[in-house]
Write a structure and sequence with these properties.
The protein is α+β, with helices and mostly antiparallel strands and 115 residues long. It is built from one helix and seven strands.
Length: 115
């Protein structure tokens, strides 16, 4: 019986590890000239942003933030990415096609007037 439980546990753990490996990561580069206090990423067909990904951290100008997306690319490949800076200004890229290890660079040109 113990062998059966242990085998089942290893199978579940293996499936979890394999599915985590299939989740793409995205690198967000802050070239806005400002400190970024909040980053939000959501599938483009989702009406909600979800929670802030930075938590207590601040993304300084020139720094990169790496995030592993919650869905495999076969399920979702278009994402909206939003950031908010120290002054409350927002920067958004809509319907970004994500590939694994994508590098998304935000600049002052991504400043959104009506976020």
């Amino acid at each position: 019986m113990k062998k059966l439980i242990l085998t089942g546990l290893f199978l579940v753990l293996g499936v979890f590890v394999l599915s985590a490996q299939n989740l793409p990561s995205v690198r967000i580069v802050n070239n806005t000239g400002k400190e970024i206090f909040y980053i939000f990423i959501s599938p483009s067909d989702d009406d909600n942003w979800g929670g802030d990904l930075l938590g207590e951290d601040i993304l300084e100008n020139g720094q990169t933030f790496t995030y592993r997306l919650p869905h495999p690319l076969s399920r979702v490949s278009l994402y909206d990415i939003g950031m908010e800076d120290e002054d409350g200004d927002t920067y958004v890229k809509w319907e970004v096609t994500i590939t694994d290890n994508a590098r998304i660079v935000f600049t002052i040109d991504d400043l959104e007037d009506d976020y």
